[in-house]
Amino acid sequence: MFEQGYVAARSGHSRGSTVDLTLYHLATGELVPMGGDHDLMDSVSHHGARGISQVEARNRQHLCSVMAASGFDSYDYEWWHYTLKEEPYPDTYFDFPVA
User: Fold this and answer.
1) Residues 64, 74 contacting (CB under 8 angstroms)
2) 30 carries an active-site annotation
3) What's the pLDDT at 1?
4) How many C-beta neighbours within 10 Å does residue 83 have?
5) Contact in structure between 34 and 23 (CB atoms under 8 Å)
6) What is the largest CA-CA distance in the chain?
7) 5 neighbors 39 (Cβ within 8 angstroms)
8) What pLDDT does residue 69 have?
């Protein structure tokens, strides 16, 4: 997984600058179809992946455009993964116990 780029040895998640997210319908609470679940380590999870429907591709693009307009960069291999462009602590990896 490390060699294929799906899992990072050091992650922005531990800096609080990276989030994994999706879209859902407010009225029903149902998840919007995105063409594969999050954390699916497969090429179908890539931005611009083949084999997903037009609706799923549009949903991914919508999420991507909202996140880009909010100051986040996408990760090419995971449609759900976004990192704040101007991270406050880009070189700090926090390590503390969580109770």
Assistant:
1) yes
2) no
3) 65
4) 19
5) yes
6) 44
7) no
8) 98
For 30, the token pair is: 């149902």
Alpha helices in 1-99 (DSSP H): 54-69
Please give the C-alpha separations between residue 79 and each of 62, 91, 92, in angstroms, as whole numbers. Answer: 11, 24, 25
Residues, the chain, total?
99
pLDDT tens, the chain, 99 aa long: 667 766 677 777 777 899 999 999 999 999 999 998 877 888 999 999 999 999 999 999 999 999 999 999 999 999 999 999 999 888 887 777 878
Which tokens is 20 given?
Answer: 């994994």
Catalytic site residue from 3, 78, 86, 87: 78
13 CA to centre of own chain: 11
